[in-house]
Design a protein that fits this description.
The complex is a heterodimer. Chain A is mostly helical. Helix content of chain A is 70%, strand content 4%. Chain A has a three-stranded antiparallel β-sheet with strand order 1-2-3, covered by helices on one side. Chain B has 22 helices and 23 strands. The longest helix of chain B is centred in the first third of the chain and has 32 residues. The chains are: A mainly alpha, B alpha+beta. At the A-B interface, helix 9, helix 12, helix 13, helix 14 and helix 15 of A face helix 1 and helix 2 of B.
């Protein structure tokens, strides 16, 4: 069978990218340590669930890495269409949690299709860029199909409403398009238009609680600033060496919603201090830069753009999450890859890394 | 599907991927910089914020010191009490209704408490609110063991208690909760919200000695306020500090004398009495009637009780011994006599004719009766006004009175410093002229004012404490004492920390002969048959003193309680070797000799009967041997030589 032949277990074994795997495992390991601290005294079952997710993630990682990515590229648009269907479905049948319709309730666990959609968008964009070479720098006319690819999920996610993820998807989109030789002038024009549109969007499209979060960011005394202030106190109070494993007090004793999904970095920063933060950021940096190095060595545009897409996905998640937790950006529900608790996030990241491994393994096969 | 390796775009994509890598690196450095700023530069600030938010500092209240009399009788102490608290939002209406029935709260009180319990809270963990204070043991037992009352708890705490109740209430004083304003101004002194602070009397004046220093205990708590014993290292500095109990203040007051004085004043509605040791200036009793019960005043006074106290026409909260000034009336004649003798306006022998009135510039000044021929001695003994009117009409008498009055301690606070001591007032000619300058309708200075001032009317105002100090100085030969109410301060273990020796304010600039002349006349007031206090004299103790019936200008309707004169008696005993000075004032009591002298005599009698019987025996001064006494009233005096 064609499909069976396509599975390259041998290739995977000989060309296995240990740097990528080990640096990602380092991040995941730190995340587990951190999760234990966050949940051991209240919801210990989350820890074992997270281990299950990571185990499943490892399988997904290897599975995605084993197929020749060209087979995946071929299915790019179909998978994208399926993702869009899921997003539409979640709007119709999803479970409402915290003012947003983001999850499918699948009994024991919740599926959040917007996480998976990020990777599917990256793959679809990769397929488009691969199929439509451009000889000069890309400009407006090359944007038509990519805009369709990205705007469908962005609008559906914004409808949930989850502006954080929608915005993140746009950032990933621009990161990929810039790498794929988008004209600087075009980018500047788009950003200019976006700035003009920002105010009416803020006024009319954002929900009350979202505006509150943004206002909270600019006005630290407002009502919505509670989480942000608690997080900031937790981080700052970690000082240079931290309060020590399991000795975080702010996190443990204060009321702290979304502790292990959106704010694990605050736990980490409080207990391990600046030193711990530097180590964690360093681990992320190694993963991201290594993926970009793989992007540079990819044998084709699909491999290169997908790697850039995955790198930017990780990058923007980390920057936005740490930025919001440290009071640099408004509070939006963006996860910290491999560290935040949650199956959708873990599995999506694992699949994305598997795809990168795939590109890395096959960079020399012509 | 694509031409592998032949892609013209790839080199440019690789280049841009490297640029993206650089961008990533810069962004990470920036975020690390932000974290460095937060955790290293600002770390200590945040650390304090977080530790403050989870460390609860519980106050360990200090036990307040006792107030005792000179013989160790406890006037103010601390006893355990039980207070009921409720957590807002947790105490449900039906729970409160049951609690209300248990505590027997009345409607208004209950409404008040419930309003505070039901008020919306702006914190996640509202502080418990005081529902009832000092509940009985029975009520406590039923709250604690009987029915389940969620959100209600009993907190035991020390409570100020005054075993003698209203005895010497104005001296001891009372306490109540510190106000928000005071809290702001006294933050450095360690006062906290909810603390009681001395309001009047020694409780207020000696608060700093009595209150001690509260300790604290720092506990790590979770957001529900539950202690977390496993986390300790966030507490900076010592975790506990024991409370230092306050010191005991020992008064010069003698409970026995105080009791005697209060009993002596039992017929009076509003009165004051002060007893001073003439050899030390120490106050043995200070009575202001009516009094209040400091047990009731300390803590949460019910609004009705407060209204009742404030509306009382006899002003129970007012300390009449130091906080109120009165016309001295005839008791001031001692000052007038001293002024006249010292400035040699008269000799003791000079005589004046009293026809019952004195006329000056078409104005008639009345005497108590027609005394006929009187000298200084007779004028004091019989309280003849005409004799003194003549002195008052002499040029410069007003300022002379002010000068000698001031030397004798009038016109300025004595320095006791209790209960907002008043200074009284001694008018001068200049003051009257000044009044005229301010208000052209005023009379300005006229001789008539000096004529009034010389008999203790007009604008002259004194306090009881000033008068007792003045008469003590006459009695002891010219020592004007600084009145003393606190004898010493003791540590809780009973060790004397500070002892206050008697302090002389000054030696009077009055010759001993003048003082002797006045003393002799004061003996006559009580012991001469025509003396104004003769009817009140004691059988075996020779008392000296002066009565007074001070007219009161109230402007209220004639004939009522307020139009009756204030009755005064100020004196000392025993006359031959004075030990104590006594001042008694009965507000609107009538004639001093009839109303004020008897209680004064009773106090003296009781003092030498029970407190200091050894001091009772003293050589009698007797009456002067100057003329043949009339047979009818010549029985007084053993004719002993002074």
């Amino acid at each position: 069978m064609n499909v069976v032949k396509a599975i390259g277990w041998r290739k995977l074994r000989f060309r296995f990218d240990w740097t990528l795997t080990l640096s990602a495992l380092t991040v995941a390991g730190l995340g587990l340590v951190n999760l234990w601290s966050a949940v051991h005294d209240r919801q210990g079952n989350l820890f074992s669930q997270q281990i299950s997710w990571l185990g499943l993630g490892a399988a997904v990682f290897l599975g995605v890495a084993a197929f020749d990515y060209r087979n995946i590229a071929r299915l790019g648009y179909i998978m994208h269409a399926a993702g869009v269907a899921l997003l539409t479905g979640v709007l119709l049948f999803g479970k409402i949690v915290g003012g947003g319709r983001r999850w499918f309730d699948l009994g024991p666990f919740h599926l959040q299709p917007s996480e998976l959609m990020q990777l599917l968008t990256v793959i679809a964009l990769g397929k488009y860029l691969n199929d439509s070479p451009a000889f000069e720098e890309r400009s407006w006319r090359h944007l038509a199909i990519p805009v369709v690819i990205v705007s469908l999920p962005v609008l559906l996610i914004a409808k949930q409403p989850d502006f954080g993820t929608a915005f993140l998807l746009l950032l990933i989109f621009f990161s990929i398009m810039m790498t794929a030789r988008l004209k600087l002038k075009t980018l500047a024009a788009i950003l200019g238009l976006a700035t003009l549109a920002a105010f009416p969007i803020y006024q009319h499209l954002l929900h009350e609680y979202q505006r509150k979060r943004v206002e909270a960011f600019f006005n630290p005394n407002s009502e919505g600033a509670y989480q942000a202030r608690q997080a900031l106190n937790a981080i700052g109070s970690g000082r240079f060496f931290g309060k020590g494993f399991l000795h975080g007090t702010q996190i443990r004793l204060r009321h702290f919603p979304a502790l292990w999904t959106d704010f694990p970095f605050a736990v980490w920063a409080e207990e391990w201090g600046f030193v711990g933060c530097a180590v964690l950021l360093m681990a992320y940096l190694v993963v991201i830069l290594w993926i970009l190095k793989i992007a540079g060595e990819a044998r084709d545009r699909f491999g290169a753009t997908v790697c850039v897409g995955v790198a930017s996905m990780l990058f923007w998640h980390v920057i936005i999450n740490v930025g919001m937790v440290s009071g640099t950006l408004p509070v939006v529900g963006v996860t910290l890859p491999l560290i935040s608790y949650g199956g959708s996030s873990i599995l999506t990241t694992a699949a994305a890394l598997g795809l990168v491994m795939n590109v890395s393994v096959r960079r020399f096969s012509y | 599907m694509e031409i592998a390796g032949q892609d013209a775009e790839l080199p440019e994509i690789r280049r841009r991927a490297r640029h993206f890598a650089l961008f990533v690196l810069i962004a990470f450095v920036a975020i690390a910089g932000r974290l460095f700023y937060l955790q290293v530069f600002q770390g200590d600030v945040f650390f304090r914020v977080t530790s403050d938010s989870i460390v609860r500092t519980d106050t360990l209240p200090a036990v307040r010191g006792q107030i005792r009399d000179r013989k160790g009788k406890v006037l103010a102490t601390v006893r355990p009490s039980y207070n009921v608290y409720g957590t807002p939002g947790v105490v449900k209406p039906e729970v409160f209704a049951r609690l209300r029935a248990l505590l027997g709260m009345n409607g208004d009180e209950a409404m008040d408490v419930w309003e505070r319990l039901a008020a919306p809270q702006n914190t996640r963990t509202p502080a418990p609110i005081l529902i009832a204070e000092d509940v009985s043991r029975e009520a406590m037992a039923s709250i604690e063991t009987g029915v389940d009352l969620p959100g209600v708890k009993i907190v035991s705490g020390p409570r100020r208690s005054y075993p003698y109740g209203g005895l010497a209430a104005h001296v001891v004083g009372f306490m109540n909760e510190i106000s928000a304003d005071e809290l702001r101004s006294k933050k450095d002194e360690g006062y906290r919200a909810g603390d009681l602070i001395g309001r009047t009397g020694v409780e207020r004046q000696w608060d700093g000695y009595l209150r001690g220093h509260a300790g604290f205990q720092k506990v790590v708590v979770d957001r529900r306020g539950m202690p977390k014993t496993d986390i300790r290292d966030v507490i900076e500095g010592p975790a506990t500090k024991a409370a230092v109990p306050g010191n005991n203040v020992v008064l010069t007051l003698d409970v026995e004398v105080q009791k005697a004085a209060e009993r002596a004043l039992r017929p009076a509605s509003a009165a004051g009495a002060v007893v001073m040791d003439v050899d030390t200036g120490r106050l043995l009793a200070m009575v202001s009637k009516p009094a209040f019960d400091p047990n009731e005043m300390s803590g949460h006074l019910t609004p009705e009780a407060e209204q009742r106290l404030l509306a009382d026409r006899y002003k129970p909260l007012h300390d009449k011994t130091v906080g109120e000034t009165y016309y001295p009336g005839s008791t001031f004649k001692a000052v007038s006599a001293i002024s006249a003798l010292e400035d040699r306006l008269v000799t003791p022998e000079e005589k004046t004719k009293c026809h019952g009135s004195f006329e000056l510039a078409h104005h008639v000044f009345r005497c108590t009766k027609t005394h006929l021929t009187v000298n200084l001695y007779d004028a004091i003994v019989q309280s003849c006004n005409v004799y003194f009117y003549e002195l008052g009409a002499r040029p410069g008498m007003m300022d002379r009175l002010a000068k000698f009055g001031a030397d004798l301690g009038l016109g300025a606070p004595t320095g006791l410093g209790l209960n907002g001591e008043e200074g009284g007032f001694l008018p001068t000619e200049e003051w009257y002229r000044d009044q005229k300058r301010k208000n052209p309708k005023a009379e300005g200075f006229q001789i008539g004012q000096a004529v009034n001032a010389v008999i203790g009317q007009g604008s002259t105002r004194v306090t009881l404490l000033q008068m007792v100090t003045l008469y003590a100085a006459i009695a002891n030969g010219g020592k004007l004492w600084l009145p003393q109410i606190v004898e010493r301060v003791e540590s809780p273990e009973g060790k004397t920390l500070e002892e206050f020796a008697p302090r002389v304010r000054r030696e009077l600039a009055v010759s001993p002969e003048t003082l002797a002349t006045v003393r002799q006349a004061l003996v006559g007031v009580v012991n001469e048959s025509r003396g104004t206090a003769y009817k009140a004299r004691l059988k075996d103790i020779e008392v000296a003193g002066k009565t007074g019936s001070a007219q009161v200008q109230t402007g209220r309707g004639e004939g009522g309680y307020e139009s009756v004169t204030h009755a005064w008696f100020v004196g000392f005993a025993p006359a031959g070797r004075p030990k104590i000075a006594v001042a008694v004032l009965v507000e609107h009591g009538g004639h001093g000799g009839d109303v004020a002298a008897p209680p004064a005599m009773e106090i003296v009698d009781k003092y030498f009967e029970t407190v200091a019987p050894a001091d009772k025996d003293a050589p009698h001064v007797g009456l002067p041997r100057r003329r043949a006494p009339k047979p009818a009233d010549g029985q007084t005096g053993a004719e002993a030589t002074p």
